[in-house]
Design a protein that fits this description.
alpha/beta; Leucine-rich repeat, LRR (right-handed beta-alpha superhelix); Phosphorylase Kinase, domain 1; 29-stranded mixed β-sheet; eleven-stranded parallel β-sheet; 18 helices; 63 strands
Amino acid sequence: MKLFQNYPLLLLLHVLLLSLLPLKTTSSARTQAEALLQWKNSLSSPPASLNSWSLTNLNNLCNWSSIVCDNSIGTVSQIDLPNLNVTGTLTQLNFTPFLNLSVFNLNNNSLSGPIPAAIGNLSKLTLLDIGNNFFAGEIPLEISRLTELRYLSFHNNNLKGTIPYQLSNLQKLWYLDLGSNYLESPDWSKFSAMPSLTYLDLYLNSLDSEFPDFISDCRNLTFLDLSQNQELTGQIPEWNPSSIGQLKELSHLDLRQNLLNSTIPHELGSCTNLTYLALAMNQLSGELPPSLSNIKNIVDMGLSDNSFSGTISPDLISNWTRLNSLQLQSNNFSGEIPPEIGLLENLTLLYLYNNSLSGPIPHQIENMKALKELDLSGNHLSGPIPLTLYSLTNLEYIQLFYNNLNGIIRPEIGNMTSLVSFDVNTNELSGQLPDTISSLGNLVGFSVFTNNFTGTIPREFGKNSPRLSTVSFSSNSFSGELPPELCSGYSLQILTVNNNSFTGVLPECLKNCSGLKRVRLDKNKLTGNITDAFGVHPNLKYISLSDNQFVGEVSTNWGDCQNLTNLQMDGNKISGQIPPELGKLSKLERLILDSNNLTGEIPSELGNLGRLFHLNLSHNHLSGEIPQSISKMTALELLDLSANKFSNSIPKVLENCEKLSSLNLSHNNLSGEVPSELGNLVLLQAMLDLSSNSLSGQIPLNFFKLTRLEILNLSNNHLSGSIPPSLSQMSSLQSADFSYNKLSGPIPSEGSFFKHPHPNAFVGNSDLCGNVAGLTACALFSNKKSTKNTTKVLIGVLVPSCALFLFAIVFCIIFTKRKSKLQDVKTKSLQDLEKSESVIWGKEGRFAFLELVNATEDFHDKYCIGKGDFGVVYKAVLSSGLAVAVKRLNTEDSANIPAINRQRFENEIRTLTGVQHRNIIKLYGFISWRGCMYLVYEYVERGSLGKALYGLDKKVEDHLGWEKRIRIVQGVAHALAYLHHDCSPPIVHRDVSLNNILLGSDFEPRLSDFGTARVLNPDSSNWTNLAGSYGYMAPELAQTTSVTDKCDVYSFGVVALEIMMGKHPGEMLASLSSVSSKTLVDDNNGELLLKDVLDQKLSAPGGELAEAVVFAVQVALTCTRTNPESRPTMRFVAQELSARTQPYLAQPFSTISVQNLTWLSK
C-alpha cells in the first residue's frame, strides 16, 4: 500500500529520466561522429586531410584530424578546419550534438550558402570564425545568443542586409570582424556599448550613414577599421561624450575612402598610442591640428586625397620621428617642405605629390638613409636637386616631375645603386646628362622629358641596365645618336625621344625588343634604312617615326603587330609600296604615311581596317584607282589622299564612310563627274577638297545637305553648269572656292558665305555673274545680248538725259560757291584721300577708302559697334554688299610718327594681312587719314563672346551649351597656336580677352585684335596699358613690360575658365595662388567642387562631355600658372584639347575638386 502511495513520485522520476536520455544521447561522441560524417559526405570533393573521418574510425572521434575533445567528458570541444579548401555548405551539418563546442573555425575555405541559425544554439562557443568564404544572406539574429563569444569573424564573405544591433549583446566579445561584405548601416543608436571590444573591423561594406556613435563608448578599442564604405558621411566625432579622443587605447585607425567631410578633430591628439592613422580619400579639409604632435608613436600616416591646407608644420614633423611611411599627397598643402623632414630617419616612403608646395628641396633629406620611395611631383618646388639627395643609396623611386626645378643632374647620381625609377619630367633642368647614369644597374624607368637638357646621351646608357623598360628624352634639345645598347636587355617597353635633334641610325637592338608598347621618334633628324629597323612587336600599340630623314620601305612585319592602334611614318623619304599586310591590323585607328615617296596603288586589303578613323596618304606618288574597298572603313573620319597621281573617277561607295568629317582628294588626276553620293556624307565638317583634278559635269544638287561643312574647294577642274542655289543652305560654310572651272550663270545670293564671299572664289569662270568683285553684274551680263533696237531706245533716252545733266552741273557750280571754307577743306581732304596710295590690302584686292568714309557718313556715331582700349569700331557696308569692321586706333597724330616707326607699322600690317586661319578675323589693311590710323577687318555679325556669355544677347546665350563652349575654347587655342607657331615671324596677341573673341553664325570663335599692340609706337607712355586687358594680364607684367607668348597662354587660361564658369575666375585664381586655400571652401567648410564652379545656368555635363569639360578646366588651370616657364605652349594646349579621346574620369564628376585639377598629367 505504501509502495502504491509512492507510485506517482516514481512515475514522475521515470519520466524525467526518459526526457534526459535523448539529450545525453544526442551529445554522445558517436552522434557527433555521425553528424560530422554526414556533413563530410555532403561536401564537394572533401580534402584528403579529412580521410580520418570515416565509418571505420567512428569510435575514435577524438583522434580525427582537426577535432579536439574535452577529455573530461569525451565529446568535441573544437572543430578547427582553416585553410583546407573545404567546398560545400553548412546546411547538412547537424549542430544539435555539439552543445559543448567552444571553437568553430572554418576560415579561408570555399563554403557558401546561408549561415545556419542553429549555430545560435552553441551556447558555449567562444570563437566563431567563418571568414574568407562565400557565405551569403543575412547575419542570423540567433548569433546574438552566443553570449560567451570572445572572437567573431565573418570577414570577406557575401553577407548583406543590416548589421543586427543585437550583436552588441555579446558583452564578452573582444574581436569583431564583419569587414569585406555588403552589410548596411543599422540604427546605430540601438547599439549598446561593448566595453570588452578591442578589435572592430567594418571595412568595405555598404555603410551609408554617419560615424557610428556607439564606437566612442568602446573605450578599450585598439583597432578600428571603417574604411572603404564609400557612402559613410558626416564628421569624425570631436565633442564629448562621443569624441574619438575617448579611444585612448587606439593604435590602429583606418577611415580611408569614405565621404567624411569635417576637419581632423583636435581631440584625435589624445589617442597617443596611435601607430597607424589612415584618413585618405575623404573630403576632409582645414589645417592639421597642432595636437597631432602628441601622437609620437605614429609609424604609418596617410592623409592623402583630401583638401587639407596650410603648411606642413615643423612641430608635427619633429614629433613623428618613428614614422616609416608619410603620405600627404593630393591635398592643398602650401609653403616649403620643413627642414625638420630630415629628422625622419626611419622613413622609407615619403609622398607629398600634387600639392602647392614651393621653395627648395631641403638638403637635410640626406639624413633619411632608409628612404626607398620619394615623390614630390606636381608642386611648385624650385631650385636645384640637392646634392645630398644623391647620397641616399637605398632610394629606389624618385618622382620630381611637374615642378620648377633647375640646375643639372649631378654625376653623383651614379652612387644611387638601388635606383629603379627616376622621373624629373617637366621642370627647368638643363645641362648634359652625366655619364654615371650608365652605371645604374637596377634602373627600370628613366624620364627627363620637357626640360632644357642639351648635348648627347651617354653612349653606354642602357648597357648595364638589363631591366630598363621606360625611357623618355622627349622635348629637350638633345643631339647626337641614340645609345647603341639602349635596349640591350630587350626589356624596353616605352621609348619616347620626340622633339629633339637626334641624328644617326636607330639602335639595332630595337628589333629584338618584343615587349615594346609605345615608341615616339618623331621630330628629330634620324636617318638610316627603316625597312628592317623593327621586328615583330605583339604588344606595340603606338609608334610614330614622323618628321625624320628615314629611307627604305614600309616593312611587311608591321602587319604582325596585332595590337597596333597608331602607325605614323609621315615626313620622311620612305619609298616602295604600301604592304597589303597592313590590312591585318584589326585594331589600327590611325595610319599616317603622307609626305614620303611611296609609289604603286593603295592595297585593297586596307579596307579590312574597320577601326581606322584617320588615313593620310597625301603627298606621295601613289597611282591607280582609289580602291572600292575603302568603303568598308566605316569608322573613317579623316581621309586625305591629296597630292598623288590617282586617276579614274571618285568611287561612289565613299558614301558608306558615313562618319567622314574631312575628305581631301585634291591635286590628283581624277576625272568624271563629282558623285552625287558625296552629298550623303552629312557629317563632313572640316573640309571637302576636290580641287586640281580633271573633274567634269555639274556640281551635285544635293551638296546642300552638307550643312556642317566649313570648307569646300572645287577649283581648278572642268566643272560646268551653274552653282546650285541650294548651296546657300550650307549654313556652316566659311570658305568656298569655285575658281577656274567652266561654271556659268548667277552665283547664289543667300547663305552666310555667298552674302560675303571671298573675291577670288569665282575667278576663272567667264560666264559667271553676280554682285561680287571681279564678276559682271547679272543685269549687265544679260544686256550684252541686247539687239540694235535697244540702242535706238538708248539714244532716245540719252539726249534729254544729257540736257538734264548739263543743267545739274550749272546748279552745282552756283551752290558750291555758297559753301563755307570748312567745307572746302573737307572736300580737299576727300580729294586727297582719293589720290592716296597708303592703303595696304591683302589678297582680296583693294578698294577706295573713300567708300568707307561715305558708308559711315564720315564715321558717325550711329555706325559705332564697339569701343575698347585700342580704339573705336565702326560697321561699314560697301556698295558691293560686303560688310567690314573699321577700327580707328587710339594713337597720336600719324603725321608726327617717325618715319622709321611708320615703316615698321606698314611692315607689321603687311605681315598681319597675311594671317589666314578659320579662327582668326581677316585683316584687310589700313590707312592713315586726318591724323588717325584705321584698320579694316572682316565683319562678324554675332558680336563678341562676352556679349553672348553674359546674356546681353539672349538669343545667343540660350545656345551656349557645353558642347559649344568646348568648341569655342578649342578654336581660340588653335588660333593662338597658329599665331605663335605657324606665323613667321611669330605673332603675340597681347590682349586675349572675351571682348576680342567674336562668334560666327555657327558659334565658331574668331580671334580679333591680334598683333595690334605691337604695331604701335613702343616708346609710347601708353605701352604698358597695351599689354592686355585688366583681369586677363599675366602676373609677371606687374614687374616687366616684356610681353611673351606665355602672356597669351595665361590670358587664354583665364578666358577658358571664364567660358566654363560663366563669370570671371579672378577670385578663384587668387585663392589658388595664395598661401592659404581657406577661400577655396564654401560656407560649410567643405571642399569647393568643380560642379559648383561651373556655370550654374547649365545643367551638369555627363558622359564624354563631362570628361571634355573637366579636361578643359584642367588645361586652363595649367595655363594660369604663376611661373611663365611652367605654362604649356599653345601648340601643346591646342593638340591636347583636340585629342580624339580625353582622359577618363577616375572619380564621379560630382566629387571632382578644383584643387585636384591644378596640374596637367601627361
